[in-house]
Hints:
heterodimer, A: alpha/beta, Glutaconate Coenzyme A-transferase, nine-stranded mixed beta sheet, 5 helices, 11 strands, about 15% helix, about 20% strand, globular, B: alpha/beta, 6 helices, about 20% helix
Amino acid sequence: MTPQVGDAPLTKDELATIVARDIEPGSYVNLGIGQPVSVAEHFAVGSRVVLHSENGMLNVGPAPDPGDDDPELINAAKQSVTQLPGASYFDSASSFAMMRGGHLDVCVMGAFQVAPNGDFANWHTGAPDAIPAVGGAMDLAIGAKKIYVMMSLFARDGTPKLVPECALPLTGVGCVDRVYTEYAVFDLTHYGDSGAVLVRERFGISHEELSERLEVPLS
Amino acid sequence: MTALVCKNTDEAVAGVVDDSTVLIGGFGMAGMPVELIDALIRQGAKELTVVSNNAGNGDTGLAALLARGRVRKVVCSFPRQVDAWVFDRLFREGRIELELVPQGNLAERMRAAGAGIGAYFSPTGVGTPLAEGKETRVIDGHTYVLEYPIRGDVALIGAHKADRLGNLVYRKTARNFGPVMATAATTVVAQVSDVVETGDLDPEMVVTPGIFVDRVVRV
Lengths: 219, 219
């Protein structure tokens, strides 16, 4: 079911469905820790999407049945997973060679901030006493052929997370292709040509209200 | 020299001196050589620099070593975790130094050390705070950051099985940093769940050839 303009903003589950819908069958995909992991449950039967986990596995399967956990079979979020037929294991250097070498088709990541030029920030809250943690985010950012950000459009305090320029420490420069949020899907790839962010789809919000609440030019 | 099969973990970690750089395998607890770390705690070496993907989970393994105040500096990609309270406390008290390295650079810098590479240009982190102050170069229109090898005095890794020559096989996602750390330290110690007779491992399945391994111990 494709949501129509005028429907309510998407639930997290519906958002995950939309992201899964837009990933081509047969793609090699890395799903970031947090909300992006839920996309795995929404690929169509027979999509032949292969999930990559940066700790060293391809063809990651769903969580095991209760009691069948194997402490040596985990995903990047350190959750127990299973192996699907055709799975492979490899060391960390090979795993990141797959990213930098451009072998991954899509990476879906969360973000604190994204800018129309494709810059994004997701590893450091900027708080002076925060303990930073980057993991594989910077390697994925420059490595995967397409970077999709999946996030809520507004922070808890109501400030937009799609911003004219990222104020937080960057994860990657000019690498985000699309931004999936509960209110709209934004295409950043044509930003350089038009100076505006293309709104691909809207959910429960008018173009005018979206333009009003964001400080970035929309088309 | 061919590997030594040690009688116990104390023999396996003998000779580690203060101020050593210790590479410690594992992604979370998967592949973490907990028994070797316990032996290192008994052995008493201090002022250590530890290179590992995380900065300890819970109260065992790497977290226990940190809690004893033996570690001056941690080089890792992802110290912030729900169960990383030992590192959190030491970091906030200013009692431990942190060098945050993107996970792919962490792996590749050790790979470079093990492969005799003087330094390499990485696309990861370009334009982010983690590349600040580092030499950059534009190659074929893309910007890269110069990254130097990370070499260990000692590597402590976990593997599944070894033979008496130190050939290693791993199990599932516990492989992670083991194979690359095994190439990058002066003394490489592997704990395994079984030591089999030389010739009993299928040569086609060996992941870390014994040439990289100095000591093996069954735990």
